[in-house]
Amino acid sequence: MYDADEKKYIDLIGGISVCNIGHRHPAVTAAIKEQVDKYLHVLVYGEFIQSPQVQYAKLLADHLPASLNSVFFTNSGAEATEGAMKLAKRATGRSQIIAFKNAYHGSTQGALSVMGDEYWRNAYRPLLPDVLHLDYNIPSSLEFISSKTACVIAETIQAESGVRAPSEAWLQSLRKKCDQQGALLILDEIQAGFGRTGTCWAFEQFEVVPDIVLLGKALGAGMPLGAFIADKQLMWTLTNHPVLGHITTFGGHPVSCAAGLAGFKALMEEGYIQQVKQKEALFKKILVHPKIKMVRSAGLWMAVEFDSFETNKKIMDACLQKGLLTDWFLFAPQCMRIAPPLTISEKLIEEAGRIIVEACDEG
Questions:
Q1: CA dist list (Å): 247 to 6, 284, 292, 303, 349
Q2: If DSSP states are collapsed to H, E and C, what string results for 158-214?
Q3: What are the backbone dihedrals phi and psi of residue 97, each rounded to the nearest 5 degrees, phi first?
Q4: Residue 43 pLDDT > 90, yes or no?
Q5: Which end of the chain, N or C, is more open, meaning fewer C-beta atoms within 10 Å of its C-beta?
Q6: pTM above 0.90, yes or no
Q7: What is the pLDDT of residue 47?
């Protein structure tokens, strides 16, 4: 990336896990230009069948478990959260939503209601009623899921708490408990999806299939796009009582879908996901310094932990001066975020790692 003075920056943020396929991938820009020359917004409620939407929905379904076959496109991940919560309430006839502490699912009022940090919620109360926040990855939390629960919403791997993955046993127990109580399991893959963790979807690594999956961030390959995906029979509950139970003007915009379709094809065909674990290992090999307390990672998604936000901020500022873009986490400000485009080369990883270590020496 380059600033107004043509100074070069290595991007370790990727637009917060948006630019998985890199910036301006030629297939993506070509698809955008081609679609712009055809048509822009027409109508997205189904009166017109639009090729970009249908083709992308089909491609996503082809790479998801068979039960995740009906795609509702939105404009963002937060809107996907909103739609999924409505779907759960409509399908189950229940009102209680269970979420987890230190979770992030967006900043609209509904999504904010399930955000797992009171500091960010408090200024906007009252929010949605009947929301219960539990401890993530703690077995005893599952006891609170009951016949009153419409859904449990969880990040497959928690993002803003600093890349924290649950145990396989806990996530499988969560799936089982939801089944027992008739509650829907919503897994948020808005940041974890599209190869970020080393598999197309993070839930593949836990051998768990959600009832609803949330997508956003990298879904549009740099264009605004989100989606919630479920089984068609489940999704069809939004078609009656009331009719048009969830609607959007721009969700599934043809240009965004064309871009996302091209980006997803490139991601799957050019082998970047297969390189994630090797690149993750290279980062972790380089990121060794007395000031670095630990490095938590899930593929090319890392939290480099320091003793405080103040230390982290000094090091991030030093990195910026040296031409390296980094970030921190909402609920783990002492941790540096590493989430580069999956296209990053090993040479750039080595250069970025060297800059971080040098910044640690200076900070």
A1: 43, 44, 47, 37, 43
A2: ECCCCCECCCHHHHHHHHHHHHHHCCEEEEECCCCCCCCCCCCCHHHHHCCCCCEEE
A3: -120, 130
A4: no
A5: N
A6: yes
A7: 80
Give the pLDDT band of residue 104 (cuts 50, 70, 90): very high
Dist CA 225 CA 233 (whole Å): 23
pLDDT at 363 over 90: no
Q: What number of other Cβ atoms are within 10 A of residue 180's Cβ? A: 12
How many CA within 13 A on the CB side of residue 49?
Answer: 4
Token pair for residue 271? 């082998």
Q: Which residue has the tokens 């791997």?
A: 157
Looking only at the bridges linking them, the beta strands covering 212-215 and 302-305 are unpaired
- Kindly give, in sequence order, each residue whose CB lies less than 8 Å from that of residue 100, ignoring residues fewer than 6 positions away: 116, 133, 134, 135, 136, 141, 154, 155, 158
Residue range 5-13: average pLDDT? Answer: 96
The confidence score (pLDDT) of residue 1 equals 92
What type of residue sits at position 14? G
Q: Would you state the pLDDT for residue 195?
A: 97
DSSP 298-337: SSS-EEEE-S-HHHHHHHHHHHHHTTEE-EEETTEEEEEE
What's the chain's average pLDDT? 96
Q: How far apart are CA 322 and CA 320, in angstroms?
A: 5
Please enumerate, as own/partner, the contacts of 316-321 that have beta carbons within 8 Å and a separation of 24 or more. Answer: 316/359, 317/363, 318/358, 318/359, 318/362, 318/363, 319/355, 319/356, 319/359, 320/9
Residue written as tokens 């600033």? 3
| For residues 251-265, average pLDDT | 97
Tokens of 210: 């959600």
Two structure tokens written together for 301: 């998604």
Best CA proximity match to 227, nearest among 57, 360, 8, 35: 57
Share of the chain above pLDDT 70, in %: 99
151, containing H or E segment: strand 149-155
Q: Is the dihedral of CA 75, 80, 82, 88 positive or negative?
A: positive
Question: What gap in Å lies between CA 208 and CA 192, rounded to an integer?
Answer: 15
My answer on whether omega of the bond before 340 falls inside 30° of 0, hence cis, is no
Residue 195 CA to residue 198 CA, distance in Å, equals 5
- The DSSP output letter for 142 is G
